[in-house]
Amino acid sequence: MSSSPTPDTARPATKRVRSDHDHSKASTKASETTRENGHSDHPDSKESNHEDVDWLKEAPFFMGKSREGWTTKWRESCWCGKTAFVYDEDPLQVKICHCEDCQRLHGAPFQQAAVFHKKNVRLDSGPEFISFLSAHGEVHPISSTPSPLPRKISCKACGSPLMDEGKNMIMAFPPCFEFARTHKEVNKSREKGEEISGAGEGRKQSQEDGNGGEKKIGLPDAFKPSSHIFYERRLFDIKDGLVKWRGHKEESEKMGEEEK
Ligand SMILES: [Zn+2]
Ligand SMILES: [Zn+2]
């Protein structure tokens, strides 16, 4: 299996097929909206349009900054593909949060968060669809310009949450990373008789795979959670043998997997 070389410039996001459902209608609608608004996905136009926007020049965006010395290791993109970030390191830690805020904001029973330093993140798409939500103390409605930290960054074209941004660190959401193979991709490889690397088999994640790079089934080791936090607020028990904290990690007591 060969992986394409990592481009050293920002490139327009591409639509990925994430499941067997027909999502084509939604993505067509999104691209029509883009055209109507006069935005372009062309890489040349997007940087020149946003040259004067200060927040885009700073972490975790670094738009227009030289990529000398940068090697993309991981790529994260939203469901519609219009907003993407790249990472040049593995996450520092990965945990699962069961708090009610995460449940509501993600519409999911829990949130999986991979912690990175901001310096290891860059925007890899146009900024047109970035939106911010701050809900610390006072709630600031979702906005196209940065609201106070900490804030959540999502794609306003499709609504996918992409990261929580703090002062120095960000927490990204592993389900949005492009390492996961879709069922279609797996089936195609099987038809071609290619070897499928997957969850049970060593999972040797390539160090040089940018742009989603080498595709695997399941999470690469670097993205496997090490603990659960706010476990007492869980919607159901998770019997995975990982450490369960009642509240914040190392600031609360540990819990049993079935303990209330
Ligand atoms: Zn999107
Ligand atoms: Zn939470």
UniProtKB/TrEMBL annotation:
InterPro entries: CENP-V/GFA, Mss4-like_sf
Annotated spans, Disordered: 1-52, 188-222
Listed Basic and acidic residues bias regions: 32-52, 188-218
Keywords associated with the record: Lyase, Metal-binding, Zinc
Membrane spanning residue stretches: none
Coiled-coil residues: none
Domain CENP-V/GFA: 67-214
Gene3D superfamilies the record matches: glutathione-dependent formaldehyde- activating enzyme (gfa)
Highest taxon above the source species: Eukaryota
GO MF: carbon-sulfur lyase activity; metal ion binding
Family: Belongs to the Gfa family.
Name assigned to this protein: CENP-V/GFA domain-containing protein
Organism: Kwoniella shandongensis
